[in-house]
Amino acid sequence: AAKRARLGTSVYEPGLDQHSAAQLTVISDLRRAIDHGELVLHYQPKADLRTGTVCGAEVLCRWQHPRLGLLGPDRFIPAAEETGLIEPLTQYVLDHALEQCRTWHAGGWDVPISVNVGAQCLQDPTFPDQVERLLKDHGRPPDVLTLEITESAIIADPHRATDVLTRLRELGVRLSIDDFGTGYSSIAYLRTMPVHEMKIDRSFTTNMRSDSSSGAITRSLLGLAHNLELEVVAEGVEDEETWTALAALGCDIVQGYCLSKPLPADEFAVWLRNRMLD
Ligand code: C2E
Ligand code: CA
Ligand code: CA
Ligand code: CA
């Protein structure tokens, strides 16, 4: 609350360091960025680990800032979460990504997409209706969309989050738990959460071959997820050795630089075409 009050004031405070001052500009600009279409979506492919077939893409947001250049999400998502702008931002991302899906569909490509959803959306009882409307507006079936949520978004208010997630699931949207194992853990919630998929955080997968505890955690998470009949996506897979090691553990899907980094839509389309020609 103290933070919010300070962000709300326009008076210069000598106590603000340069970073905070820059952060203030970012926040006041973000509303305009959403209204003026300055947010850019990049798409990172995911592939079936056994066949190598591309099975979807995660949508990752960047901000083409008029003065500061291309900003990564770490520069503005936390601020958006703190100021309530995450809801209009999520709407923007869903709207533009589903429109992209429609374009690809018209061209003969059905690419399922995964969109990151912030904590506040899971506390908003109107969120499922918004998602339903956006799917209808863009003429896409609900199963093209996976919503990625984090443990911390659930823990904020598990009861309300469960209600919202249940309605999303009833809509036919897929649900994924992101960054699993990095939050204040909540294995207990896995039993009651109506999710389809678990994403293993890259802090575990990236080091799994060099660091035995990361390897052990990855193995345990895979076992846990599979026992609960969840599909498992390993993120941050950077090399072929890790891919092979994950395949040996029975992991389902991979995402990471070994396939491709996140790409703008047009480059993603080129990447996909080249891959299908291989
Ligand atoms: P995330 O959901 O865990 O996304 C994965 C991040 O890992 C992305 O960073 C991606 O570029 C990066 N990554 C993917 N493969 C590799 C790899 O092989 N190696 C390494 N070192 N990194 C890899 P990015 O794009 O900077 O996004 C950071 C975070 O920002 C995301 O983490 C997500 O939590 C958040 N974010 C991004 N877009 C959105 C959005 O539209 N809405 C919300 N609410 N959050 C978003
Ligand atoms: Ca994610
Ligand atoms: Ca993640
Ligand atoms: Ca992560």
From TrEMBL:
- Highest taxon above the source species: Bacteria
Locate the EAL domain: which residues? 23-276
Q: What is this protein called?
A: Diguanylate cyclase (GGDEF) domain-containing protein
Q: What organism does the record attribute this protein to?
A: Lentzea flava
